[in-house]
Amino acid sequence: MFLWGKVPQCYKDAGELCDSLLYNAEVFVTPGFVFGSNGGRYVRISLCAPEELLMETSNRIGAMQSVATIDSIKGGLIYAE
């Protein structure tokens, strides 16, 4: 089972969001453009994992988003570092 998510406007494309998730939250998601040209603003997330792992992953992404929001308010880049 998979979930498709739209890339927020603060990211250039799905590749940039995927890189940010991988390097900052240690979460791998697939950029939608590997499935066709209409996927450039989407990511595909696999839900084929134990519920505990999905919850942990969700928490790591949420923590990254909190830092990114603070950085964007300060005028920085939308990256959690």
TrEMBL record:
Q: If you read the UniProt record, what top EC class would you report for this enzyme, in one word? A: transferase
Q: Which UniProt keywords apply?
A: Aminotransferase, Transferase
Known EC number:
2.6.1.83
One annotated GO molecular function = L,L-diaminopimelate aminotransferase activity
Q: Reply yes or no: does the keyword Transferase apply.
A: yes
Supply the InterPro entries for this chain: PyrdxlP-dep_Trfase, PyrdxlP-dep_Trfase_small
Segments spanning the bilayer are none
Q: Coiled coil where?
A: none
Q: What is this protein called?
A: LL-diaminopimelate aminotransferase
Encoding gene per record: dapL_27
